[in-house]
Amino acid sequence: MIAVQQLVRAFGLALVGSMHPRMLWLSLRPFLIISVFWGCLIWLTWTPALAILGSFLTNSIFTNWIQDGLIWAGFDHARAWIAPFFFVMLAIPLIAISLLVLIAFSTVPTIVNNLCRHSQYSSLQCKQGGSLIGSLAYTFWSAFICLALVMLTLPVWWIPPLFAILPPLLWGWLTMRLMAYDVLARHASSQERDTLIQQYRWSLLVMGIACGVLGAVPTFFWASSALALVLFPIVSFMALWIYSLIFVFAGLWFSHFLLDALQTLREDELNQALVVEARVMDSGEQ
Length: 286
Prior knowledge:
Elements: H1 2-17, H2 21-59, H3 64-72, H4 78-118, H5 132-153, H6 166-184, H7 190-199, H8 201-224, H9 226-230, H10 232-285
């Protein structure tokens, strides 16, 4: 019950905090970086990538049945749009994961520092349980696992009800992993971080899945709308902006929840130590 109250309280604080101009700027910065990077990359690779992908879909024995099935179903012009559709399908997870990794690595520490300067967490001692190298390794390893799971499950994303289950679970798991580590990297020791993640693992997973559900909304529109294929650059920028806002909100939510949990953990340990000390003193006097 206490964990649920902490979760709801952290949600309210994150919702209010995400509307602050500084938080809006923190969501704009990674959005611009990722937009420029992927915009240039897609512009340079669009034509050759479509040619390679179209040839693969047509000639491969593993995928040519897709076009044949669409033509049999009445989609006579399937060959014209099947390659762009698959290109978008492959690009979406890569873009979303790269944005989440950038926000977790560069923006979440800024969010934590901002909260610790101007809130009830300012008295928290920094124990540096995480390092820059550790954060990089943890981030890229988690992103690699998530990307591998995405690629393995991508063919069944649009099979009901998997399209409503798999993306939120994958984004939620990755969000939980990255946010939990980076929020606690500076202020918690490695032992405290492991204790908190173990103690609140279900609450953290619920938070991650909730953020994954929010993130799955632009994903579903992005990949399922015909308009998204025609206006891919414009629609992708809009979806990225929504992604960025959601991930910054997730950073605030996890920060409020875990910093409060860390503070509670240290207070409980201090109280237990005082109780033990008092008992030792009482036994010594007797």
